[in-house]
Amino acid sequence: MSITKDDARKVAHLARIAVKEEDLPSLAGELSAVLAFMEQLNEVDVDGVEPMTSVTPMRLKRRQDVVTDGGMVEKILSNAPDAREGFFAVPKVVE
């Protein structure tokens, strides 16, 4: 599939990219190369291939899914301009 200069202009407009008129032919060529590579990838037979997260087989690290306070309340509240009773204190907005 070949991308024309007009197609490249439309793609640039849709992507909200400012492309000079003299740069449109090279953009069209680059987009055509990307589409040609995608067509080439579509020819690869991937039946029976398991999805991978990495090229080396490894198990992702896991942790217990438990709710905690982070264990650093004092450290977090030390950044607050005003903290009271273990919470951020903010000015009253609604009466």
Automatic annotation (TrEMBL):
<keyword id="KW-0067">ATP-binding</keyword>
<dbReference type="GO" id="GO:0016740">
    <property type="term" value="F:transferase activity"/>
</dbReference>
<dbReference type="InterPro" id="IPR003837">
    <property type="entry name" value="GatC"/>
</dbReference>
<dbReference type="GO" id="GO:0050566">
    <property type="term" value="F:asparaginyl-tRNA synthase (glutamine-hydrolyzing) activity"/>
</dbReference>
<dbReference type="GO" id="GO:0006450">
    <property type="term" value="P:regulation of translational fidelity"/>
</dbReference>
<dbReference type="GO" id="GO:0005524">
    <property type="term" value="F:ATP binding"/>
</dbReference>
<dbReference type="GO" id="GO:0070681">
    <property type="term" value="P:glutaminyl-tRNAGln biosynthesis via transamidation"/>
</dbReference>
<dbReference type="Pfam" id="PF02686">
    <property type="entry name" value="GatC"/>
</dbReference>
<keyword id="KW-0436">Ligase</keyword>
<dbReference type="InterPro" id="IPR036113">
    <property type="entry name" value="Asp/Glu-ADT_sf_sub_c"/>
</dbReference>
<comment type="subunit">
    <text>Heterotrimer of A, B and C subunits.</text>
</comment>
<protein>
    <recommendedName>
        <fullName>Aspartyl/glutamyl-tRNA(Asn/Gln) amidotransferase subunit C</fullName>
        <ecNumber>6.3.5.-</ecNumber>
    </recommendedName>
</protein>
<comment type="function">
    <text>Allows the formation of correctly charged Asn-tRNA(Asn) or Gln-tRNA(Gln) through the transamidation of misacylated Asp-tRNA(Asn) or Glu-tRNA(Gln) in organisms which lack either or both of asparaginyl-tRNA or glutaminyl-tRNA synthetases. The reaction takes place in the presence of glutamine and ATP through an activated phospho-Asp-tRNA(Asn) or phospho-Glu-tRNA(Gln).</text>
</comment>
<comment type="similarity">
    <text>Belongs to the GatC family.</text>
</comment>
<dbReference type="GO" id="GO:0050567">
    <property type="term" value="F:glutaminyl-tRNA synthase (glutamine-hydrolyzing) activity"/>
</dbReference>
<keyword id="KW-0547">Nucleotide-binding</keyword>
<keyword id="KW-0648">Protein biosynthesis</keyword>
<dbReference type="GO" id="GO:0006412">
    <property type="term" value="P:translation"/>
</dbReference>
<keyword id="KW-0808">Transferase</keyword>
